[in-house]
Structure to design on (266 residues):
């Protein structure tokens, strides 16, 4: 006779696994090229950034390899963006299957977090692995900093995605508002620059404060600490990012617990 814990966990795990396969097929298609595009697109963007900026400046803002510098900025941002977007739409785009009694809204959320979290982690490892294997980057890896940056990115993407799903349930126009607000994020998240490299007047003024309040800037800085031994990143505050992520997760779960029916109906 199966233990009561396994009797309740195993059916839920089977449901989540089935939802992952369904979401994978719907998102990436049934061809190998569909899933491969998740890897090819970020590498293509990073390559274009490296080539473009190499024509303008002689050396990257940090280190000696353009590809690695922009990869350590773009990949965390892309992970956050993909997770937050996929989770934001997880309930609205799966409303039909919620009619099945064994499927709950939490199953949908966990399935999307697992699929896109694992995918983005695999993309990160693949792109960084290719760069490290084929380029003379001079990087000195700090696994703890890299793991911390990835964990914070996943937590923040999860929290913001849940919060947006909940806010859209109560305020449908928030979907468009967030779309407008999130567009400049890539320019304010340290993907293309170092926070310390800004002019002193900008750092001490309102712009410096606004940038510092962006948690993605801290994640990008922490990720670069994982590859560049000479980078101090004194402005980085991991506890600040963790607090924002945990707050967003808690608020998103609380709001969706009572409003997921509205989120599905939108």
């Amino acid at each position: 006779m199966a233990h009561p814990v396994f009797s309740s966990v195993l059916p839920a795990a089977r449901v989540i696994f089935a939802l992952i396969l369904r979401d994978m097929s719907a998102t990436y298609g049934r061809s190998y090229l569909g899933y491969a595009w998740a890897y090819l697109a970020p590498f293509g963007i990073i390559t274009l950034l490296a080539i473009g900026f190499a024509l303008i400046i002689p050396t990257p803002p940090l280190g000696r390899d353009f590809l690695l510098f922009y990869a350590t900025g773009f990949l965390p941002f892309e992970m956050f963006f993909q997770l937050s977007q996929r989770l934001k739409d997880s309930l609205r785009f799966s409303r039909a299957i919620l009619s099945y009694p064994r499927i709950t809204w939490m199953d949908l959320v966990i399935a999307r977090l697992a699929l896109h979290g694992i995918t983005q982690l695999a993309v990160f490892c693949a792109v960084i692995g290719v760069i490290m294997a084929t380029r003379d980057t001079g990087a000195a890896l700090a696994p703890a900093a890299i793991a911390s940056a990835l964990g914070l990115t996943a937590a923040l993407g999860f929290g913001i995605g849940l919060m947006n799903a909940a806010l859209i349930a109560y305020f449908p126009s928030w979907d468009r508002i967030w779309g407008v607000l999130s567009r400049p994020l890539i320019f304010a998240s340290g993907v293309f620059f170092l926070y310390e490299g800004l002019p002193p007047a900008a750092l001490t003024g309102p712009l410096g404060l606004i940038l510092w309040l962006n948690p993605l800037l801290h994640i990008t800085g922490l990720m670069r600490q994982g590859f560049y031994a000479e980078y101090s990143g004194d402005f980085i505050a991991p506890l600040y990012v963790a607090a924002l992520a945990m707050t967003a997760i808690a608020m998103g779960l609380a709001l969706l617990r009572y409003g997921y029916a509205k989120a599905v109906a939108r």
Observations:
- Residues 42 and 178 are 23 Å apart (CA to CA).
- The two ends are 43 Å apart (CA to CA).
- The chain has a mean pLDDT of 86.
